[in-house]
Amino acid sequence: MKEISGGVTAPQGFRAAGMHCGIRANHDKKDIALIASDCLCAAAGVYTKNLVKAAPVYKTMANLANGRAAAIICNSGNANACAPRGADNANSTCLAVGAALGINPDDVIVASTGVIGQELNMEPILKSLLPLTAALSTTGGGEAAEAIMTTDTVKKEIALEFELDGKTCRMGAMAKGSGMIHPNMGTMLCFITTDAAVAPAALQRALSAAVKKTFNRVTVDGDTSTNDMAVCLANGMAGNAEVMGDSAELSAALLTVCTHLARAIAADGEGATKLLECTVRGAESESVAEMLAKSVVGSSLVKAAMYGSDANWGRVMCAMGYSGAPFDPATATLSFESAAGSVTVYSGGEALEFSEEEATNILSQKEVAIVVSLRAGGGEATCWGCDLTYDYVRINGDYRS
Amino acid sequence: MKEISGGVTAPQGFRAAGMHCGIRANHDKKDIALIASDCLCAAAGVYTKNLVKAAPVYKTMANLANGRAAAIICNSGNANACAPRGADNANSTCLAVGAALGINPDDVIVASTGVIGQELNMEPILKSLLPLTAALSTTGGGEAAEAIMTTDTVKKEIALEFELDGKTCRMGAMAKGSGMIHPNMGTMLCFITTDAAVAPAALQRALSAAVKKTFNRVTVDGDTSTNDMAVCLANGMAGNAEVMGDSAELSAALLTVCTHLARAIAADGEGATKLLECTVRGAESESVAEMLAKSVVGSSLVKAAMYGSDANWGRVMCAMGYSGAPFDPATATLSFESAAGSVTVYSGGEALEFSEEEATNILSQKEVAIVVSLRAGGGEATCWGCDLTYDYVRINGDYRS
Fold this sequence. Notes:
2 copies of one chain form a homodimer.
Chain A: E1 2-4, E2 14-19, E3 32-47, H1 55-63, E4 68-78, H2 86-101, E5 108-115, H3 122-135, H4 141-147, E6 156-164, E7 167-176, E8 189-194, H5 200-213, E9 229-234, H6 248-267, E10 275-283, H7 286-298, H8 300-307, H9 314-321, E11 333-338, E12 341-347, E13 350-351, H10 356-363, E14 367-373, E15 379-386, H11 390-397
Helix pairs in contact in A: 1-2, 2-3, 5-6, 7-9
């Protein structure tokens, strides 16, 4: 498995484009993306668990029910959630994309991201479809990835090559997500393409398993969005024998892609100055480890301390304590780690002496790991988040985003 | 029932004092409080649900197991949680207070609040007991309330008179809490005194019921503390016939006292500029209403929008959607209310037109209510929180608190 360039257009038979259509006032910000496969794909999706779901989420769930799709349309600047005529507008978008590409509108995946509660302006979307379709290209992955950004400060994409059945397959992906990010979802917006041949049921199982260990272990602010979805299209053009069951290679590729994007989303959390990674080892089960690690990266007090590069480890113990997961504080060992080194601050029920200067230096790096070892079993999990900063408040307090 | 002055020393037979003993470096900040009853009291307590509990919480749980207590000692500046010799130090504190007051050390309630993970320095505590005992006075409630403050910016106390069995009874209370405040606890530090005669079991039931509807409906930052406790002492000096079962008057007095302090804690949340109150009506049950309202006041995105006085109601719908509680968005009506008026922004599944200027004016007040009406039943609950501000980040990022 090796990383390559090209994002969602790295796999054979996928073209993409992104442009400004006018949903946003700012002409410099692309606001619509289209991804199209040259043939019908096996398709799988996971969706937000939020009870208040955006209209495009419902539409995509319906269109993916048969495990097939051929194109993805996504706008930024408006979430089409709790919005007048939401279902009609999601439906019209699919009809128009189907007509523009000459495909069945039920094979179109539709997604939106942006402000909740405002009617989606259909005119710029409909007007954009002709130029957008004309712009589709096998090198358009990067432009599409730019077009779905909202408060994201960096474009998030990845592509890689892997072997299946002696054939070289490719997988590409793009994602957006910066605020309203919290575990318990099929998360944020993430679109994955691959030219591997995979049966829909096998693709769904592999995608769900990868999301569980990656996007569902990210939190920025504890707010689960109304619009989250992660979708994978597999068009089979690599020529491998169709994957019908579990494939270690496919699962590894999906896990690599989703881990990369999950970390990128956490690192680019609204206002974030650093990526937080919490790993809990030795828990009585993986799910216990996950609950403990999620609670740590989700704690406002831990996040604020990390912003201040303050080794306030009591807040880590506190957050594990209220996680709802069982553990024995007397057996816990707690360390902070980064590129600048490692410091153990608590072990066996005892606070340890440590150098505050050394700890501050370790915590001042761009990526900081909080590592907890227990002695209750083999359960391990890593969750990701970011620090809580003045800029998070500015971004979310100063204007409607 | 009428409000009176005097805090925890308003009821007959209670004396209190607060002073600086030296746990904190700042000589201007009182850091130890003592409350003593002239006779043994019926006593009830509720405690943090955090699995990581501070040593004084365990000690108080043990000492209150027999439903009796006579004094409360509380220091600020050090939480005595995850700290070396924590249990020994909580125990020594009770022994020393018992000796200083001439009472059984098992009748002493001990509480601590401050930094987690540092050893409690016993010398200033032990040295303070003689002057603290000498300073005990029937007008010392205010000084005691000051001594338990940490990041609190205002002293939180209340007292009132009520009738039981034809006798005038008094109830006084003090509380602290500003950060590490989140529902699911017996919460923060709150000490309530009353001269009513109440059997321990009846007092425990009434206190638990009041806490459930007040402190357990407050959140500042989603972090449940290791040191929370709410304790009530009833010394019987009002001369009423002992309350053995449910008393509407006693319950009303406790609810009034706890509601006042819960609101005071939310309004004084770390960095807060305004009190948020979310009321959900017409839910299928009270517990559903509570889950929905708690999720709204706990949402970082709602809190940041309220800081910016931004009527971003989509975030309110989103927070209810991920609360885990069932409701039908199509039947929801959503309004913002304050002293400046009321604006309805969403009703029957539809976004409503409203004046942004009017909404901003309503949201710019010191107390803002988010009111949600459903049409699913008679369940109603109110939860309290505060806005998320730059100062929350400053307070929790810039130094170990």
